[in-house]
Write a structure and sequence with these properties.
Elements lengths: L6 H6 L4 H15 L4 H7 L4 H10 L8 H9 L4
Length: 77
């Protein structure tokens, strides 16, 4: 998939490609419920790095018992 943002709009929003991908990853995490590891992969971060990024931006981290169980099963811990 390829998403294009008009240069004029990107400039007005002060977006570069990395920031746009970061915003997309955060939105998918918050509003579509994707796992932190998948959101991190969108921007080249580990799950824990992504959670740190969320914390830096003042966003809530959605990490429950099911996430822990998934991490244990996939050896992400």
């Amino acid at each position: 998939m390829k998403i294009e943002i008009n240069d004029e709009i990107a400039e007005k929003c002060q977006l570069d490609e990395k920031e746009a991908l970061t915003l997309l990853a955060i939105a998918l995490y918050k509003f579509r419920g994707i796992h932190g590891s998948l959101a991190g992969k969108i921007i080249g971060l580990t799950e824990f790095e992504f959670h740190n990024l969320l914390s830096e931006k003042g966003e809530a981290i959605n990490y429950g018992i099911d996430d822990l169980a998934d991490d244990i099963k996939s050896n992400d811990l």
